[in-house]
């Protein structure tokens, strides 16, 4: 994952149902690795306490699901003008622009201080339907409260969930979420790569009619980690896409929702009968084993699993696509990464989730840009070994063959040129092809069987 940010726009192809590549082998059982105990216990505690991982309201009334998520990281930036997360905010309001994957009758917002070292004072917050750019739809602004109060102090490393707001939203609808930070925040909890413009304004601009005050455009989401909806009864839970920059949608067209989970959301929203919401838990530069020096690359997948996956409201299933940065950046071996996969699988199952493994996409030709073992013969050998294990081990509840969906048949170590942004990341058409490779019927059917009545 480099520091470059180059948008690409490529016309997407129609989905061919015959290209669905999800297989459903029977999972193999085995001894629970020691490292999983913390995550597994966290997940089981969540269930025991009535937390969101498996909680479900009676179906006739709908249930709370995660409709949007951005995995939070500490404040770190490659460009302080576009994303001032390294210094944070003082006496400002951030307007985060986000798109929901599912609709519902009510919403609630999750404000995060996960990357903070000090308590975070939130002076006020609100939510509105987004119109265009920084503009909100007139008459839709709703103030948020926290246990009935208009403000809250969030502990370092913590998160606050707002009280529900009666706001009818549609699947794929865009919201503006406003958060006023009255005091100096220090480095800001963020999601660095948003592929979406958000906005800053001076002072408290959480009320209606403040659109023109948001004069500063930013490229990251700040202090916002999620939006949940009280969904229609046919939305049986949440699917989480977990991974690195390829899940995060790096090099997809900005402000156009072209990440592979976005295309999944569109497919799920168009389904008749039972369906799922979907949220994106990808982080650029993220790894399975290592905390990288760039803070915006976040903590390794196992360290953030409970927060970003296991306790997501309505969580029913997760797609795991990770390890390419470990191989490229750290020269990790498949034998180093397989035990981490096994730990994640065990923790997901302990929380009652189905887990699907995605094969690593081709990356030959990327070493000139990303250095290390990205795209080298040595890196390719480890990628192939890991993909063989993902396909044949039976460890997952199913396998999604992203490698097969994106590779060039004439040169399988490389991305198909029509899907290639920079030899490592797909372009818009490639991200759509990834979503088209997911057998949603199988995932939704499995989720229906595990959903409480």
UniProtKB/TrEMBL annotation:
GO terms for molecular function: hydrolase activity, acting on ester bonds. Residues 241-433 form the SGNH hydrolase-type esterase domain. It holds the Pfam family Lipase_GDSL_2. It comes from the Bacteria. Gene3D superfamilies: SGNH hydrolase (3.40.50.1110). InterPro entries: GDSL_Rv0518-like, SGNH_hydro, SGNH_hydro_sf. Residues 1-27 are annotated as: Disordered. It comes from Sorangium cellulosum. This is SGNH hydrolase-type esterase domain-containing protein.
């Amino acid at each position: 994952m480099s520091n470059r940010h180059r948008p690409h726009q490529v016309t997407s192809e129609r989905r061919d149902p015959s290209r669905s590549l999800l297989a459903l082998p029977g999972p193999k059982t085995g001894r629970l690795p020691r490292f999983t105990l913390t995550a597994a216990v966290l997940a089981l505690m969540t269930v025991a306490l009535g937390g969101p991982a498996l909680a479900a309201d009676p179906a006739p009334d709908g249930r709370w699901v995660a409709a949007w998520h951005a995995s939070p990281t500490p404040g770190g930036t490659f460009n302080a003008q576009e994303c001032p997360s390294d210094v944070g905010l003082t006496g400002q309001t951030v307007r985060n622009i986000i798109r929901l994957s599912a609709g519902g009758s009510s919403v609630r917002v999750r404000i995060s201080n996960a990357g903070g070292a000090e308590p975070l004072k939130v002076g006020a917050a609100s939510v509105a339907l987004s119109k265009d750019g920084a503009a909100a739809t007139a008459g839709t602004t709703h103030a948020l409260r926290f246990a009935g109060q208009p403000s809250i102090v969030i502990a370092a490393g913590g998160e606050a969930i707002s009280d529900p707001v009666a706001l009818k939203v549609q699947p794929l609808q865009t919201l503006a979420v406003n958060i006023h930070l009255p005091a100096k925040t220090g480095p800001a909890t963020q999601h660095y790569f948003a592929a979406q413009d958000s906005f800053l304004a001076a002072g408290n601009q959480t009320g209606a009619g403040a659109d023109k005050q948001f004069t500063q455009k930013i490229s990251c989401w700040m202090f916002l980690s999620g939006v949940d909806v009280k969904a229609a009864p046919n939305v049986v839970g949440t699917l989480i896409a977990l991974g690195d920059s390829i899940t995060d949608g790096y090099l997809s067209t900005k402000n156009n929702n072209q990440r592979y989970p976005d295309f999944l959301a569109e497919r799920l929203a168009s389904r008749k009968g039972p369906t799922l919401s979907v949220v994106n838990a990808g982080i650029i530069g993220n790894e399975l084993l290592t905390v990288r020096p760039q803070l915006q690359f976040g903590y390794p997948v196992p360290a953030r699993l409970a927060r970003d996956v296991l306790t997501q409201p309505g969580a029913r299933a997760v797609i795991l696509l990770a390890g390419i940065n470990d191989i490229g950046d750290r020269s990790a071996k498949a034998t180093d990464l397989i035990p981490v996969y096994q730990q994640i699988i065990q923790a997901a199952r302990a929380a009652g989730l189905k887990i699907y493994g995605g094969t690593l996409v081709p990356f030959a030709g990327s070493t000139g840009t990303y250095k290390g073992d990205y795209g080298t013969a040595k890196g390719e050998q480890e990628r192939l070994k890991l993909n063989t294990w993902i396909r044949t081990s039976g460890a997952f509840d199913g396998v999604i063959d992203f490698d097969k969906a994106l590779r060039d048949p004439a040169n399988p170590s490389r991305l198909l040129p029509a899907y290639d942004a920079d030899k490592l990341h797909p372009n818009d058409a490639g991200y759509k092809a990834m979503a088209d490779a997911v057998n949603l019927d199988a995932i939704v059917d499995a989720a229906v069987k595990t959903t409480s009545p």
